[in-house]
Amino acid sequence: MTRGIKLFKIIGIRINLDFSWFVAFALFAWSLGFGYYPQSIPGLSQTAYIVMGAVSSLSIFICVLIHELAHSAVANRLGLNIKEITLFIFGGVAHLSEEPKKAMTEFKVAIAGPLASGLLALIFFGIKMLVTGMSAPDQSMIEIATHGEVSIIYPAVISTLGLLARINLLLLVFNMIPGFPLDGGRILRALWWAKSGDIKVATKVASAIGKSFALFLIFMGILDLLSGNTIQGIWLLIIGLFLQQAADASYKELENKITLEGVAVSEMMSGDVVTLTEDQILSEAIEKIFFTHHFVSFPVVKNDIAVGLLTLNDVRAIPKDDWQKTTVGEAMKRLTANMMFYPKDDAETALKRMLADGVGRYPVVDDHGRLVGIVSRRDIMKTMELKKTLS
Predict the structure, then answer these.
(1) Higher pLDDT, 99 or 138
(2) Residue 149: is its pLDDT beyond 50?
């Protein structure tokens, strides 16, 4: 989830907006502006309701951000590296660079978010009680001169405080459901892991509960659709499908980690590498290399030193009429540290990077930059499947 808009940094953590966030913001603003506020504070203009809905929608996501910042602050304090938080259609996600290595670390990070939401619920509820407990404001100060009506500010504040208290309480309860990848699922996994010492079994249990809860949401969504409650039904279906996919992905990621634990790139790489040179004509490289060897990328070398990578996308970026007058060196991407591996590098890290970059193969070089092999996503995944089958 790297697409979107980079906003700002808080306590050293970059805050991003995924494009799907705008859909969620609009839906919340619409439902509050056309549903919640007209029922809570009748008699106002639709413009006032829309403004209140938009402000409240933004406030809800600020609460979600505080929830994620709580996770991140605790994680960073415990030595885990969180540099980014992304807000998206289903809430927010803090990007962990690595999974916790101890059960209690997992527990502390997981519980921080729900505790923050619970604290926010208490704060909003407390402020609401304080405000409603005060004597009514002087109407001479809050009258709207044009209509002689009582200002909307006082009831709007009361209604919004109550809304935010309930939303944060809902965030607390929903996230504490003991199914992966929700916070409650991570807490369950941490406790099971601490008791059994087996993170794989703990993850399997938490993921199974997470998938069961996801199926329950999908079932309720279908019932809502059949009963004519279309909007709620669609939301439940989407959230259920998302949680089911996330629970599956979380367990598979752990399986990959365990399978590849202690495995170096040198054990996965191929030493027989087809290469290109910078001075080759692009049309020749396509005809003799791409069409012959059927890979989507090839390393480019100069005196045995890896200097670049030519991919099918690089070729597509060059007009076909220019292929005969363009060299491989002009079309390729120059190698950077993130586009190569060393034989001693961790195979799991290599797989994660290739999946994140959407690249199928990366060169493997020695300490002097000489090409010694190539590691591919396909080879790593085939080896993992073989290990899982044999184990």
Answers:
(1) 99
(2) no
Q: What is the rounded radius of gyration, in angstroms, for the C-alpha atoms of the chain?
A: 27
pLDDT band at 152 (very low <50, low <70, confident <90, very high): low
For residue 304, report the phi and psi dihedrals to the nearest 5 degrees.
Answer: 70, 0
Place of tokens 């459901």: 177
Distance of CA 326 to the CA centre of its chain: 39
Q: Which two tokens stand for residue 17?
A: 């907006």
Residue 143 identity (one-letter amino acid): E
**How do the domains of the chain map onto residue ranges?**
5-176, 193-259, 265-390
Question: What is the SS3 assignment for the chain?
Answer: CCCCEEEEEECCEEEEECCHHHHHHHHHHHHHHHHHHHHHCCCCCHHHHHHHHHHHHHHHHHHHHHHHHHHHHHHHHCCCCEEEEEEECCEEEEEECCCCCCHHHHHHHHHHHHHHHHHHHHHHHHHHHHHHHCCCCCHHHHEECCCCEECCHHHHHHHHHHHHHHHHHHHHHHHCCCCCCCHHHHHHHHHHHHHHCCHHHHHHHHHHHHHHHHHHHHHHHHHHHHCCCHHHHHHHHHHHHHHHHHHHHHHHHHHHHHHCCCCEHHHCCECCCCCEECCCEHHHHHHHHHHHHCCCEEEEEECCEEEEEEEHHHHHCCCHHHHHHCEHHHHCEECCHHHCECCCCEHHHHHHHHHHHCCCEEEEECCCCEEEEEEEHHHHHHHHHHHHHHC
Q: Give the distance, in angstroms, between the CA of residue 265 and the centroid of all CA atoms in the same chain.
A: 27
Per-residue pLDDT band at 327 (split at 50, 70, 90) = very high
- Please check the confidence at residue 308 and state whether its pLDDT lies above 70: yes
β-pair type (371-376, 361-365): antiparallel
Q: Give me the CATH code for the 265-390 domain, please.
A: 3.10.580.10
